[in-house]
Amino acid sequence: MPHYALTIGVATLLDAEEVMILATGHQKALAVQAAVEGPINHLWTVSALQMHRHFMLVCDEAALQELKVKTVNYFTNLEKHAIHSVL
């Protein structure tokens, strides 16, 4: 349980130039699924970030457990292409 937290509105979040969220552990898997595969809805505020132009979601394997294999493969390939374009 965190000792400190920051709460901001969705509009403020969407106005940010860049947004990066770090999700670790299986307890975050449903939130990751909602952020990536689910529809945008008020039950999962993180889903609104699907509309953000520069949103990065960084996850460990445990946080990916609820995603479809096809989704994981898609983003893994995007990451590989991004890395190769820099090298």
Q: What report would you give on this structure?
A:
It is a single chain. The chain is of the alpha+beta class and 87 residues long. It has one domain (10-86). Helix content is 37%, strand content 11%. The chain has 3 helices and 2 strands, in the order H-E-H-E-H. The chain has helices at 10-15, 29-36, 69-86; strands at 19-23, 55-59. Strands 1-2 form a two-stranded parallel ribbon. The termini are far apart.
How many beta strands in the DSSP annotation? 2
Which segments are poorly predicted (pLDDT under 50) over 5 or more consecutive residues?
none
- Overall form: globular
Q: Give the strand line-up of the largest sheet.
A: 1-2
Number of domains: 1
Quick structural summary:
With 87 residues, the protein is of the alpha+beta class. The chain is 37% helix and 11% strand. The chain has a two-stranded parallel sheet.
